[in-house]
Amino acid sequence: MKYIEWFGTNFIGLFEAGAEVFKSFMTGIIPLLIVLLTFTNAIIALIGADKVENWVIKRSNNIFFRYTIMPILAVLLLTNPMCYTFGRFLKEEHKPAFYDATVSFVHPVTGIFPYANAGELFVFLGIADGVAKAGYNQGSLAARYFIAGIIVIFIRGIVTERITKFLTSRKANNKARGV
């Protein structure tokens, strides 16, 4: 009987702890996420969606823009998972590399812009909590993640673009040879 009572008390305690975390999100991070997302959508509405789209299309021929600025804008403006739709502005041969760069940026952005990928926020907050307990600044961690993320997405975009070109030409050569 003692074990049943212990199980009942501790089992419900698990859900009580979950409810406390949920309450803290409702008064903390969720209002912040809503305000940041509203702000981003307001900026796009003020500029005009057509103007934003035309500006992106014109600049997508630049490799630096394509694998740094474009993924950053996509993640910040459209958030995860809609950010991948920014690839529609690109030529077919650039789409795999853009996707690779963008999917690689949805975690590093979380520390500074948590609304962009709320699913990853729990991972960042766990790491940030450890950093804070070690006596370091969480803002510094977020900034370093962001900068490292930009470097990584640029490298990944270039490498994936070259791999895509190699595989595409290889497939074309095999087709030409009848293989």
UniProtKB/TrEMBL annotation:
A Pfam family this protein belongs to? Answer: EII-GUT
Q: Which PROSITE patterns match?
A: PTS_EIIC_TYPE_5 (PS51107)
Q: Where are the bilayer-spanning segments?
A: 25-47, 67-87, 142-159
**UniProt keywords, alphabetically:** Membrane, Transmembrane, Transmembrane helix
Q: Where is the signal peptide?
A: none
InterPro entries, sorted: PTS_IID_sorb (IPR004699)
Q: What protein name is recorded for this chain?
A: PTS glucitol/sorbitol transporter subunit IIC
Please name the source species.
Answer: Anaerococcus martiniensis
